[in-house]
Write a structure and sequence with these properties.
Helix 1 packs antiparallel against helix 3. Helix content is 51%, strand content 23%. The model has no long low-confidence stretch (mean pLDDT 85). The chain has one domain. It is α+β, with helices and mostly antiparallel strands and 127 residues long.
């Protein structure tokens, strides 16, 4: 009888750990995606001021957009990659490491999740 109770308690603890830490992993995934989206948005508004002033064209500067997205990631303290796809798209990938609570009892101390986002660099109409 006591062996049954011990085994049942361990199984119950494992299920609670999977539920709690699984929920934390899902939340971390949503947070990573939100950070990637905000970094992409930060870059999407970078206007090529040289073209805007000399030719009156509202064009996006892809290099400045990538820098702005990287700066956002640095300021939020997250690791990630920023790439420009052609001259009109900015792709951001963010990695978040989340510690576990109950699963650390069985040797799983943390997990890593990745969030991805893209922004299309679209200039507005000229003034």
């Amino acid at each position: 009888m006591t062996l049954f109770v011990i085994v049942f308690a361990l199984i119950l603890l494992l299920l609670v750990g999977l539920t709690a830490d699984g929920g934390a992993k899902m939340t971390a995934g949503r947070r990573a995606t939100a950070i990637a989206e905000e970094a992409a948005r930060a870059g999407a508004g970078m206007v090529d001021l040289g073209r805007a002033y000399t030719r009156g064209e509202a064009a996006v500067d892809p290099a400045a957009a990538a820098r702005a997205a990287r700066t956002y990631l640095t300021r939020t303290g997250h690791a990630g990659t920023v790439t420009t796809v052609g001259s009109r798209r900015l792709r951001v990938s963010v990695t978040v490491r989340e510690p576990t609570v109950l699963l650390s009892l069985i040797g799983i101390s943390d997990f890593t999740v990745t969030g991805n986002a893209e922004a299309e660099l679209v200039p507005g109409p000229p003034p």
